Amino acid sequence: MVTLEGTIQVPQDQLEATQAALVAHIALTRAETGCLSFEVWPSADNPLTFHVKEAFIDGEAFAHHQARAGASPWGQLTQGFARQYQTSGLDQPASPDETFMHQALQLADQAGEAGEVPVGAVLVRDEQVIGQGFNQPISKFDPTAHAEIVALRQAAQSQSNYRLPASTLYVTIEPCLMCVGALVHARVARVVFGALEPKAGAVLSHPCLESHPSNHRFALTHGVLGEICGQRMSRFFAAKR
Q1: Catalytically annotated residues
Q2: Contact at 8 Å (CB) between 24 and 105?
């Protein structure tokens, strides 16, 4: 994962034009393949200073963004502005876990665009996606249509089997009690999630399997792109307030 953080200084006479161009720049960047997150906001202390925080899945995606942004109206407008940026991760290729979590994040964005809580899930076996889904209980009138359940249903249909051994589920947010139960019944081998869900998470936040008899346990990895997954949730609920 490649990250960039820093500030850009806007001349007073270019402030209005910068604010206008920024809306399209943010939308286009977030839509880029490989963009994990992109935030630009004015400093509370100085309206001419803008903070920038961005993350891309790998160096190739970051380079594509740099090339596109540089040739865009935003790039042409701001090419002479003073910047202080720090970049990290350019020499670190994306891991398989990050790659599949990125796909889950793209599904989470689809949920958010539809007005659903932005959670996405991808089920993988032998490095191939066999099922995927995003939250849609509101649009489907279905209280069980969490991202994990949708992905499990799709995978079970594609594999013609209600058991899904040797599979890994990638989900942006810690699964709830219902989804943990479904993962156990499906015999999913491993669960990878991004951000904790302090209120309803039933894996680490409120672990349920230790005290419940079960003939299956899944391996667990958490925190993969966790900050970015959590930002999706925070941004969604902040917009609802």
Answers
A1: 148
A2: no
